[in-house]
Queue: 2 jobs
Job 1
Amino acid sequence: MKKMLQVTLGILTAIGGFVDIGDLVANALVGSRFGMSLAWVVVVGVIGICLYAEMAGRVAAVTGRAVFDLVRERMGPRTALLNLAASNLVNLLTLAAEVAGVALALQLATSVSYLLFVPMVAFLVWFVIWRMPFEQMERMFGLAGLALLVFAVALWQLGPDWGSLVHQATHPTVQSGEGHPTYWYYAIALFGAAMTPYEVFFFSSGAVEEKWSTKDLNLERANVYVGFPLGGLLSIAIAATTAVVFLPRGIEVEHLSQVALPTVMALGKVGLALLILGFVAATFGAALETTLSSGYAVSQYFGWQWGKLVKPKDAARFHAVVLLSLILGVMIVLTTLDPIKVTEYSLVFSAVALPLTYFPILVVANDPGYMKDKVNSRFSNTLATAYLILITVVAVAAIPLMIATKAGQ
Amino acid sequence: MTGRALDLTLHLLDRQVLDQDGGMVCNVDDVEFLVPDDGAPPYITTLLTGPAALAPRLGGLLGRWVLSAYQLLGERHDKEPDRIPYELVTDIAASVKVSRTRAEMGVHPGEDRARQYFVDRIPGARHESS
C-alpha cells in the first residue's frame, strides 16, 4: 500500500495532461464523432510523454535541477524567455479553464451557475498551494482523480461490441461526413494534450519537492510508467463510452453534462456521484498543476527560490507569481469565455513551447557532466529523436490546421 | 577549483547559484573579467546577477522592457547588477555553490521586497506547510 501511494506524483501529473477539463470534453467529442479511430494517437502520446517525463524526472533526481533551469541553460536567456512567455500563456489559459472546470462540475451537482463557484474554487486552489504539504496534495488529488476509472466500469456495463471497438481502433478510418483536416486537427489536439509542457515542468519540479535522488530512480520510473499509461487509459475509456452511446445516434458532445451521460445510463446515480467526484478532483488537480507550473517556470528562469518545501516567506517571489497567476486566471474565467474553447486555443502556444521544452531535456539527459553514468541509453535516444521530429512537425502543422478547420468545427 | 577546463557559456552562464545551505539564490546572469596589464590570461572576478545583468544579454527592446519592468516594481533604481565575488564560489557542477548564506550576500533585493510588502503579510507565511 505504501509503495502504491508513492506513484501519486505520476498520476497527478498525468491527470493534468490527459483528463483535465479540456480533454474530458475533447476525448468525449472525439469518441462521438470519430469513434475509436483516434485511439492510436493517445498511445503515441503516452509513449512520448513517458519518454520525456522519465528523462526530465531522472535529470531532476540526479542533479536537483528542474526543466526550466535546463531550458535556460541550454537555449540561452532569449530563446528561453520566448518559451517562458508561450508556456506561461498555456499555463494561464489552462489554469483559467480548470478553475472553471471545477466550478462546472459543481454546477453539474447543484445546478447553481458555475460563475458563482469560481472565486471560491480559486481561493481553495491558492490555499492548498499555500498550506498543504506537497506529498499530501499529490496523494489527495491523484487518488481522488482515480474515481474517473468509473468510465471504464461504465464501458463494461454498457456491454459494447468489443470486436467492433477494437476494429475501429486498429483500422482507423475517417468517419463519413468528417473531413480529413478535421480528423488530423483532433489528432494533433490529443497529441498536444498528452505532451503538454506543464506536465514536465510539474513532474520534474515535483521530483525536487519530493527530494528524490539518484537512489530513487526506480521510484521515478514507477511514477512515469504507472501514471501516464493510466492517464491514457482514462482518456481512451472516455472516448469509448461516447463512441458506444453517441456515435451510432449521430449526437455530438459539446458539454460536460454530455460527457457524463453514458456513465449515468450504465451505472445510475452511483456512477454520477463517482463521476462528479472524479471531475472535481481531476480539474482541481490540473488547476494545482498549472498554477504551480507557472510559479516553477518563472522562478527557475530567473533563479529565484521556489517550491513548497520551504516556508512561503523564503520563496516570496514564487508565491507572488502563483497568486498573481490565479488572480489573472479568475479574471479570464469571469469574462464568461467558454472554458473548454480556451483550452483548445492554448494549443497554439503549446506549439511554440513544445520543441523548445523537449529539446533541452534530451540534450541534458545525454550530458555526462550532469548525469555521470545515468545518461540516456541509445534506444531511448533514437526514440526521443524521432519524437522530437514528430513534435516539431506537429508544432508547425497545428496553427494552419486550426485555422483551416475553424478549430475542428 | 583548478585542474578542469570550463566552458564559460556551457558551465557557468545561466546556472543556478546555491548558498551554503542549498537555498536557491539567483542565476548567473553574466560574469566580469579582469584582463591583467602584463598580458597574462584574463580571469573571472565576479558573478553578476539581477535584471541589470540579464537585460544586456537579452538585448534590444526586450532587454529594455525587462529592465524597466523591474524598475517599475521598485526593485532597483540604478542600473547596476548585483555582484558575487568569484572567491566565494566553492563548486561548479549542475549548479554553482557559494560559501555564504543568501542573507549575507544580499543579492536579491526583489525577493526581499516581495517578502516585506506582500508575502509576509499573508497569515501562515512563516510556517512550514505541514
Job 2
Amino acid sequence: MEKSYIVKQISIFSENRPGRLAAIAGALRDAKINIFAFSIAEANGFGVVRALVDRPEDAHRTLTDLGFRVSFTDVIGVKMRDEPGGLSDIASVLGDAGINVEYAYAYSGKDGAVLILRVDQVEDAVRQILACGGELLAEPSR
Amino acid sequence: MDCWNRDIEGMPTEELRRLQYRLAKRLVSRVYETSEFYRRRMKEQGVRPDDIGSLEDVRKLPFMYKRDLRDNYPDGLFTAPRDELIRYHVSSGTTGKPTVVGYTKRDIENWSESLARGFSSCGLGKGDVFQVSYGYGLFTGGLGVHYGAEKVGATVLPTSVGNTERQVELMQDLHVTAIACTPSYLIHMGEVAEKMGVSIKNDTDLRLGFFGAEPWSEQMRNRIEEWLGIRAYDIYGTSELSGPMFTECAEQKGIHIWGDLALVEIVDPATDEALPAGEQGELTITMLQKEALPMIRYRIGDLTTLEEGACACGRTHPRIGRLRGRVDDMLIIRGINVFPSQVEHTLLEIPQVGKHFQIVVDRKGALDTMLVRVEVSEEAFSDKITDLMVIKRTVEHRLRGALNVGVEVELVEPGTLPRFEGKSKKVIDRRSL
C-alpha cells in the first residue's frame, strides 16, 4: 500500500559550471522524457540535479550511457492546497510524527501544488499523511 | 676570506681530491664489509672495494635511488648500530611508505659543520639573531638549520612555520637579523607584515636569509632583496643527504658543496654518464662521511649544473647552479615533496572515489595550493549533498595525512579525468617563479 506512493526520483551528479544543466536537459529532451519537477542542490564546486520524470528507468539509462553518475532516490509527492496554510498542514503532520525532512522542493501546476520530499522514514511518512487525509502522487505506471 | 674552517674551505683542489679519494675508499670498504645491501649491489655490478684505485673509479659503483630507501624501509640501509643513532627524521616516500633517515652523533656534527661554513660564508655569526621559520619535527629543515645556526654562535629563535603575525612581532621585538624558510613563506611573511603596517625593510633589523626546500629564481631573489632590504641566499639539501646542508656564499654564484663531506657528480639521466661542468644533468651525490645512512652515487632527481672554475670568494670546493627542475614528476608544495604516485596510492584505499585523479597546483598570493580532482564512485554516489561533502572531506583528510600537506578535493563528473594520456596530464602546475 505505502510502496505505491513512493516515487522514484532520479538524481544526477553535476559539476558546477556552465552547460551542465543544458547537457542533462538536452539528453532527456532527445529521449522524449518529460520532467514534472526538478531542483538543483549546490555545494562547493559540484551539485546534484534532482528530477521527477515520466519514465525514470529510461532517464537513468539514457544519462548513465552518456557518462553521468545517476541514482534513484525514493521520495514522496504530497498534494497541497494551493493557498495559505497548504505547506503548514503537511509540515505539521510530519513534525508531529517525528519524521525529519532531508530536502524538499515543490511545484504548483494546473492540477494543484505538490511538495516533493525526501524523508528519513519514507513508509512511515506515507502512512501518516494518508491517515490525516492527505493525498499523494502515485508512482507512474511501470 | 672570513672562514669557519679555513684549512678545509681553502684546501688546494688537488689536495681536496686526494682527501675525497681517501674518504671514498674508506667508505666503500666499510659498507662492503658491513652492509648486505651494498655488498650485493656491488657484486651485481661486478665491482669490489679494491677496484677503487682513484677518485674517478667511484664511477664504477652502482647508483642508488629513492626506491632503494623505500624497498628497505625503515632502516635496511643503515650501517651504524641501532644504539649509535641519536636522531631520526622522516620524509615522504614515493608511495605509501615514508623515507626514514637516521643520524649518529658525528652525522649531526657534520651536518651542523656544513651549515656553519655556509652561514659564516654569508657573514652570519655571533651577535646575529636567527629566526628559523622552517618546520620543526620530522621534517629536517627546522632542526637542521637550528643546529647550524647555534654552531656559529647565533641566537636562534625557533619559530617554525605558521602564526605569521606573531613571527613578524617577534622579528621586530627580538631584533632578528637572519631568517631561514621557504622563499614562498618569506613572501607571505612580507605581505602579512605589510598588512600589519610593518615594513620588513624599514622597521626590522633583518639583513639576510637562507631560502630553499623549493625551487626559486634569480628574479625572485631580486624582488625579495629589493622589497625586503635583505641579502637572499640559496640553501640546498634533501633528507637523504641529512637535510638542508649547503648554501651559497656572499658571492651568490652557486651553492658550495663541501668536498670533504660530499662528492658531486652531474649525470646524464638518459645515459647515466657523468657530464662535464656547465652541462645540465641530474645531481648525484656520494656522502663521504655519513655513518648511519651512507648514500653512494645517490640520484637525487634534481636537475642542475656544476659551476666551472673557482669561486671569487676563494673557496675551492665545487659549486652547483640553481635547480632547474626534476627528472621525475615530484612536486614541491610549500616546501614538502609530493609525488603523484602517493596520491594514487592513497586514493586506491578510498572506495568512495575512483582511482583516476588530476592534481592542480597553483599559487594564491605567496602560498602554494594543491587541488586534487577525483570522481565519486557509482556505489558511493548519494543525492544528499551532506553525504558528498563527507566524501570530499574524507579524501582531503586522508591525502593530508599521507602527504603532510593540505589539499583541497574537488569532486568531478565520471569520465572527465585524464585516463591514458600519461603523467603529464595528471598534474597541472600553474605556478610561475
